[in-house]
Automatic annotation (TrEMBL), chain A:
It is an enzyme of class 2 (transferase). HAMAP family: HisG_Short. Keywords: Amino-acid biosynthesis, ATP-binding, Cytoplasm, Glycosyltransferase, Histidine biosynthesis, Nucleotide-binding, Transferase. It comes from the Bacteria. The lineage of its organism: Bacteria, Pseudomonadati, Pseudomonadota, Alphaproteobacteria, Hyphomicrobiales. Residues 55-229 form the ATP phosphoribosyltransferase catalytic domain. Catalyzes the condensation of ATP and 5-phosphoribose 1-diphosphate to form N'-(5'-phosphoribosyl)-ATP (PR-ATP). Has a crucial role in the pathway because the rate of histidine biosynthesis seems to be controlled primarily by regulation of HisG enzymatic activity. GO terms for biological process: L-histidine biosynthetic process. The gene is hisG. Pathway: Amino-acid biosynthesis; L-histidine biosynthesis; L-histidine from 5-phospho-alpha-D-ribose 1-diphosphate: step 1/9. This is ATP phosphoribosyltransferase. Its main location: cytoplasm. GO terms for cellular component: cytoplasm. CDD domains: PBP2_HisGL3.
Automatic annotation (TrEMBL), chain B:
This is ATP phosphoribosyltransferase regulatory subunit. NCBIfam families: PRK12295.1-4 (NF008951). It is found in: Cytoplasm. Belongs to the class-II aminoacyl-tRNA synthetase family. HisZ subfamily. This function is generally fulfilled by the C-terminal part of HisG, which is missing in some bacteria such as this one. L-histidine binds at E64, F65, T66, R92, Q103, E107, R313, Y317, Y318. The gene is hisZ. Required for the first step of histidine biosynthesis. May allow the feedback regulation of ATP phosphoribosyltransferase activity by histidine. Its main location: cytoplasm. Pathway: Amino-acid biosynthesis; L-histidine biosynthesis; L-histidine from 5-phospho-alpha-D-ribose 1-diphosphate: step 1/9. GO terms for cellular component: cytoplasm. GO terms for molecular function: glycosyltransferase activity; histidine-tRNA ligase activity. It comes from Rhizobium wenxiniae.
Length: 232, 369
């Protein structure tokens, strides 16, 4: 019988919360070797193996089909994979790791509350400032989908930001940001506000399945999904 | 070095260009990416091949010729008017077709007799395609950004709405969405009481308030938008929110966008539309008619050219004519007037520009059929 591989976050709250859910689902996870090993197994299920990976690697591996399931944030799935819905299926929403991907602008932009406002500002930006409106983000794909796809805004430039994105406007690296926020307190501390229609994605940790042909009719796959859904 | 995968009609094409008094220009295959992303927007990023230099400069494989040709012209500072032609490979990530293929075309920079230059561009594209694909019927579609802008301006909407509509010309889904918003009562924008109080003051007090807040929050040192700009747009926004397009204006705009007819009928039909609607569209109609006449003078059969009022490209450097020549739903040539591009790319003076490019892979397929 073929092995089923489940990729789980390798550290932090996400790792603990994911382990707790699998425990409740009757699939207690034990590390192979010592506590800090990156391989694991499920007690009583010899045909399931666990790979502990970083959250963004998990998105990539499910997309490539090298693992069967993974637990990761929906934001990383939608950002990391082109055509995500064709490659993967969100089998269960797990109720932790809540975070929204949002468009945030300086609070002092009193005239900007909506994406339409932002579109107006972006349209004039080049003629006023000699350059396009700049957005600091690590979410290239989600930003493009939201700006161009949903709101017809083309005229902006993305400035890649891999950390402390909230500080980019005050530091002059960008005009606005697209970033993840759970409570909004970091945004507030940096005098940024979320646009009223600026929530791009309400993300949380999900059990995600790679869409593979061999999963069809495999009762074990359906059983894992069912068990996790009940444990949430 | 001669490239052996060039389309077999390349020599013929270069002769066509030479016969039209154009000078061939070459541009490097590897280009700085910023001008393309600046001009066309971030969406282009997914469709081009990007790489980085050792020093971190963002580079791409040439995705088209117009921007490199214009940049080369600015760099060489050879003066205008100039007519350039090009033929070479371009690189794009496409759903259909190869990722590398040939394009050729003409860019006409600095010709101030714009109606004649427009007509010449359309005529050149049509003639060259007729010569390459003899005896086949080609569909020619023409649109005009300036005519749409004239209609929007004549309707007397607030400046902000005019800008929104003009920006979205060519993106029909977005344009329809805007028209629906204009037709329905606006949701109150929900100004905070504090903001409402600020707005009731004079502009100087509002600017001072914004300035003070920026100081307090440590934002001002890097502020891209000044207190004056924010205050001005806040006032503009107030008028935006209070605007509702009355039913008749909305009908007029929709009626205009649905216009489609042969170019031979279009000047009279547009004049009739303006008269019936009581819109003063002045210069845009004069230019439109002059272009049509110049095309007829060059021997273009205007009854075989379709004018479609909603046909445009949602890029802010297109200013007037746009056109397309297609066969069996494949676009073989696309062109237009882009008077704003040269200054956006760094030219010191306004340089009127019109041009077109030919999709050689599709032309090759059309010839084979």
């Amino acid at each position: 019988m073929s092995m089923i591989t489940i990729a789980l976050p390798s550290k932090g709250r996400m790792k603990e919360d994911a382990s707790a859910i699998f425990e409740r689902a009757g699939m207690p996870i034990v590390a192979v070797g010592n506590e800090r090993s990156y391989r694991g197994k499920v007690d009583g299920h010899d045909d399931i193996e666990i790979a502990f990976l970083s959250a963004s690697e998990i998105a990539r591996e499910i997309g490539a089909g090298t693992v069967d399931f993974g637990v990761t944030g929906e934001d990383l799935i939608r950002e990391g994979l082109a055509d995500a819905d064709r490659k993967v299926e969100i089998s269960a929403r797990l109720g932790f790791g809540h975070a929204d991907v949002v468009v945030a602008v300086p609070e002092i932009w009193l005239d900007v509350d909506t994406m339409a406002d932002l579109g107006d500002v972006a349209a004039d930006f080049r003629s006023r400032h000699g350059r396009r409106l700049q957005i600091a983000t690590k979410y290239w794909r989600l930003t493009q989908q939201h700006f161009s796809g949903s709101h017809g805004i083309q005229l902006y430039r993305i400035v890649e930001s891999l950390g402390a994105t909230e500080g980019a406007p005050a530091a002059g690296q960008a005009d606005i940001i697209v970033d993840i926020t759970s409570t909004g307190s970091t945004l507030k501390a940096n005098h940024l506000k979320i646009l009223s229609d600026g929530v791009i994605l309400k993300s949380e940790a999900c059990l995600v399945r790679a869409r593979k042909a061999e999963h069809e009719g495999d009762a074990r796959i359906a059983a894992i999904v069912e068990a996790v859904r009940k444990a949430v | 070095m001669p490239l052996i995968n060039m389309p077999e009609f390349s020599t013929h094409l270069l002769d066509e260009f030479a016969a039209r008094g154009t000078a061939r220009i070459d541009t490097p295959v590897i280009q700085p990416a910023a001008p393309f992303l600046d001009m066309a927007g971030e969406d282009l990023r997914r469709r081009i091949f990007l790489t980085e230099s050792e020093t971190g400069e963002s580079l791409c494989l040439r995705p088209e010729f117009t921007i490199p040709v214009c940049l080369r012209h600015i760099e060489n500072a050879t003066g205008t008017p100039r007519r350039y032609c090009y033929l070479g490979e371009v690189f794009r990530q496409r759903r259909e077709g190869d990722n590398e293929f040939y394009q050729a075309g003409i860019e006409d920079l600095g010709e101030t007799a714009t109606a004649n230059a427009d007509a010449r561009a359309v005529n050149d594209a049509m003639q060259i395609l007729h010569n390459l694909i003899p005896g086949r019927r080609l569909n020619v579609t023409l649109g005009d950004q300036a005519v749409f802008e004239a209609v929007v301006r004549a309707l007397g909407l607030p400046g902000g709405w005019q800008k929104r509509l003009i920006q979205s010309f060519g993106n029909n889904a977005h344009l329809r969405h805007l028209l629906m918003t204009l037709a329905s009562p606006q949701a109150e924008t929900g100004l905070s009481p504090e903001l409402a109080a600020l707005l009731s003051q004079d502009e100087a007090a509002l600017i001072a308030h914004i300035d003070r807040t920026m100081e307090e929050t440590g934002y001002s040192t890097n502020a891209s938008r000044s207190p004056r700009e924010i205050a001005a747009r806040l006032k503009e926004k107030q008028s935006l929110a209070e605007t509702r397009l009355d039913g008749s204006a909305l009908l007029l705009l929709s009626e205009f966008l649905s216009l489609e007819m042969s170019l031979s009928e279009a000047p009279a039909a547009l004049a009739g539309f303006a008269d019936a609607a009581g819109l003063a569209m002045g210069a845009a109609l004069v230019t439109f008619q002059a272009r049509a006449e110049a095309m007829a003078d060059l021997g273009v059969d205007l009854t075989k050219v379709t004018y479609r009022a909603a046909f445009g490209r949602p890029l802010d450097y297109y200013t007037g004519l746009v056109f397309e020549v297609s066969r069996d739903n494949a676009v073989l040539a696309g062109g237009g007037r882009f008077d704003r591009l040269m200054t956006l790319l760094g030219a010191n003076e306004d340089i009127p520009a019109v041009g077109f490019s030919l999709w050689l892979d599709r032309i090759e397929q059309a010839r084979a059929r």
